[in-house]
Design brief:
The chain has 404 residues and is mostly helical. It has one domain: Up-down Bundle (Growth Hormone, Chain: A), CATH 1.20.1250. Helices cover 78% and strands 0% of the residues. The longest helix has 30 residues.
Length: 404
Amino acid sequence: MTTDTLPADAAAPKRPGLGPVLLTVFLDLLGFGLVIPLLSFYAEQFHATPMQVTWLMATYSIAQFFGAPMWGIVSDRVGRRPVMLMSIAFTAVFLGLFASATTLWQLFLFRALHGLAAANISTAQAYVADVTEGPDRARGMGLIGAAFGVGFSFGPAIGGLLSPYGLQFPIWLAAGLSAVNFVWAFMRLPESLRPGASEGGHRRTLSPAALVHGLQHPVVGMAVLLVFVATFSFSMMESTFALVAEHIWSMGPKDVGGMFGIIGIVGIVVQGGMVGRLAKRFGEAPLVQVGYVCMAAGMAILASTPAGPGVWIGCAVMALGSSLATPSLNSLISRGVGPDEQGAVLGVSQSFSALARATGPATGGVLYARWMPTGAMAGGASLMVLALLVSLPATRRAVSGRPA
């Protein structure tokens, strides 16, 4: 019997499942999360000022600004699997070098190289787009966010708990986890890009014109702008959170790890079990808008609370909003373009996210030093109100203009 006589579903190659890429993202973000609660404290051991601490965070994201579209475009050319393997291997190397640094300039160098290597989330999102269709894509994007949330939940909590053994110890553990991740991905992560699916998508480059072209996309351009505004707001808050926790709320690395753990746990519950069902019932657009309301409210609470329960409540409300909005917006963007654009368009989206994470921390540092310690949180809340207003026409255009 030849393939001509087989049923269509039997002749079609079986698509890979989401399990391997979800575990790969989880291990990737677990290692990343280990470093988050102690980064400010680690930099201060090298006599870094608050501005230098926020610039250290910005350096990572500046590198991701260039790395995200690079990995996305390369994955459209050669496949998702080799890109994931390369990025994970380099992540392990540069984390080890970051833990071995002896001067402040080395922290900046190895943090930048780590950011360049770890900018593979656009490839993971393209992997999900390869193996899902229609409303299931929101669920797939939500599961990627849940894997992110699980890693981001356990990572900071573990990093905080291990900080009494030395601030370098969790970083070395993160490097080791990346090495384990590489072995796992090498053995179990299959290729998801179907032959011919990427034809026509190779012309995109890292030039500013290509990024402007992404904003001018007739269907998802405004949604890509939303990615920038929301991420900028969040990164302003994130970059000064540990500084405020240490100097205003009198918290240490263990406490900061617990706060980020709350954010991760909310992400697990919402993105892993709720957002897919909610998207099927209500659509992605309302979830984006409700999410932005919650993010604005959470940041406003953090900006105004002196300490205590208000900090936990603010983190939980903000995390709820981010967990609803982010996967829903990514789903709208991915469903608004053809399969040949998945890697490149998501890469451009992640570039704007990384650009926001590069400029947001620097802006947050200025607000912290020259306005008030919680100025980045207050500014982030205001910008989320703006994002809510922009989301109304942006999501309507993304829904009405998606391919049939």
